[in-house]
Write a structure and sequence with these properties.
Shape: elongated
Helix content: over 70%
Strand content: under 5%
Distance between the termini: 30 Å
Strand order of the largest sheet: 1-2
Oligomer: single chain
Length: 881
Amino acid sequence: MEHVPPPAEELARLDRELAELDARRAQLLTRRAWLLAALRPPAPTAAPGWNPSAWGAPPPGRPGAPAQPWGYVPKQPSAPRSAQNVLLTLGGLLLAVAAVAFTLVSWGSMGIGGRSAVLAAVTLGALTAPAVLLRRGLTATAEALAALALVLTLLDVYAVHAVAAPDTDGLGFTAVAAAVLAVLWTAYGLALGKLRLPLPAAVVLAQWPLLFWAWAADAPAVVVGWALLATAVLDGVIALRGKGPGVRVTACVGGSAMGFSALMVGLALSTTASGPLGAAVPGALLLAAAAAALAGAWRAPKGFARTGGAVAGLAAVAAVGGVPAAALSDGWRTLAYLLCGLALAGVVRAGLPRDAMRGVLAASGAVVAGALMWALPPLAAVLLGPVTLLSDVWAGSPDGFRSALGSTLPWSELAAAPVVLALVAGLLGSAYRWWPPVERIAAPLGAPEETPKPDAASNTAAAPDAASTAPGTPEAAWTAPPGAGTPWYTVGGAGARRRPSGAALRGAAGAGTLALGWGALLLAGVVLNVPYAVAVAGETALVGGLLALAVRSAGNGRGTSAVPVTALVGAVSGAVSVGLLSLASEGASYAVFGALAVLFAGAAVRVGAEVPRAVFAVASVVWGTVLTGFAGRSLDLDPHEAAPLVLVVPALTVLLGARLRRNPAALPVELAGALGALVAVGLAVSDAPFLALVLALCGVLAAGAAVRPERRPVAGSLAAALFVLATWVRLAASDVSFPEAYTLPVTVPALVVGVARRRRDPEASSWTAYGPGLAATLLPSLAVAWTDTDWLRPLLLGVAALVITLLGARHRLQALLVLGGVVLALDGLHELAPYVAQVAGALPRWLPPALAGLLLLAVGATYEQRLRDARRLKDALGRMR
């Protein structure tokens, strides 16, 4: 079903969307003007008295087009250099392969002098050639030879180790060689500044000296972590101060990999430490990583600053929280990290850059979210565990709360879960209670983003669009301060992004307080393993408290709807959970469901909002229906025998609906009662006499609801259908072979009443006047005729259906025409079925598919005509009464 909002709400929504579109358009126009001004070359300064037009200079271009100097001849587009790049790449690759093959294969066949001479000459030539080529403008060729020189220097290192120092440690030699090569290629890249390969290659080589040195020295893991961290710090310095985007990107990638590896080493050592002293050493590594990340975030661009702040926050939490966590048991370590994560919120007073501060706060939120995720599985076990009691209802009261849940979770190791939930709930509750001071403290985080300031030329170019930034326009709302009555926006390259308002954030804090506090109380009962009776009573009391809070919050009109909605959802969820929990004991079941029915009914009476009232009323009806089912079980009744007892609550909902009248909660209450009646019908299906009784009682209830004018169209037809269905079921249960003896006495007076109704009200529908009476006889007779082997009943039924059909066509009565035609067609089909089967058996097997194909072709060819005929038939039937 598609939700159509009220006109006022839809109009407000359209206004908001139009304002956002206007604001985005103004931003794009401003940026376009700035780009046009940036692309326009500076105009040449004219000498005094200079008149370009007098000397044949071209007139100025159209407004907005980039101005061109006099005598400017546009360049022809240069030929693509893809072929040249491919050739140079292939050539450099082949030379590198040849060098590798020479070093590995032909090296041993030469003397030491020849080896040195060949390597020195080739390497020196490869290093010298790019300088000569750059002076001649052959940059691509120089890049290819520089790549070859890089490969040759690596081969030189291998050759030196294989011949000159074969007994040295491979890892130590590699560390020294990587450091030397990094220094040499850095100097080479700075000397030949036009080459783009040497400096990134030097950055790549600089990643390995410290790591291989620690590896070669068999250093402990913490020393390896320090080596990785030192390399990451070096990469960060290069990324901030390096020359060219290639160097910076390479340094960023290498620093991210090395820094992540250092953090993983420190975290692994911290979490596996045997005590606080053992965790202090990797903690120092993590703190150093946090300081390095924060220092980088201080000067990095916005996106990197936020990432650096988040990494610094997480590393600080792991460092500080790991020391006390090492002295605690497994169930309490999460609490230590949570306390450290919450302490990060004090960064708002530390004077950090805004983006770095946001990253640190994001790390604090991630730690809190991780702690909550750790505590959610036991809470889900508390809420869903009582489902196991459905298989053994009223088996007896268990010893404690844990045994009633049937869960195998290690509750002794989850003792900190309620403390975690309670701590976070308390902080959110404090923020909800003292929201204005919290909002003032966090105000720097919500300051609008700064837009790039265009120069004077861009301001001049943007003059035609200056009206878009006038007061009262959407563009002016972008720079409005928070709390000025305008939405909170962020202006950036990706467009405007709306921030949640202070009221929404406060409502979210209140909702989180309520949900987490409720979960903490439930988990505390399980951790303490309170007695079963105390657990049931406590959960019921919690449901009552949530209902009271939902009623109060929905009626005072303060704040947002997050708190009452959370209270409503919690009350319904808690009611279902405690209801399932009470199934272990008969007395507890009656007490809990009775209390729930009373509590929800009282909440429905007291609440002022329509939606909560309907939810509470429906829930009260459901709990009452469950109580009637309990009564049947207590009386040792079979399900079909207890079905009439279940109809007590639907009968009360009919009376309550008549009392409520036009109240919005009346319809949900009656629908809930109808659902209870459907449950009663399902219980009675196994026994036909009881099913007929239940259907008749449901018909009585529907007839009682049809007394009200607003329910008459639906309830009246439903009552008639239920009565007829009850009659059929009763006849079938009694093995009646001549149903007409029972249905005709009902049909005749029903038709008489229908005729009287039509005379009094000629506009009344034929279905209301004649439909129930005709269906009471025609349909049972048709059902019996299909199983009757004699010819008399089908003949009489066909004649009667034909007469009814003709009367319907003559007097334009839809009910007579449709009922008579359907019964006549089905009766004729029954009579023709044996002959059709006999003919079908005599025909070849290919003929029926062929006839079906011809029929489909005929229908497809005349599809439009058949569609028009069907529409005319539908219109003709619709015009009948």
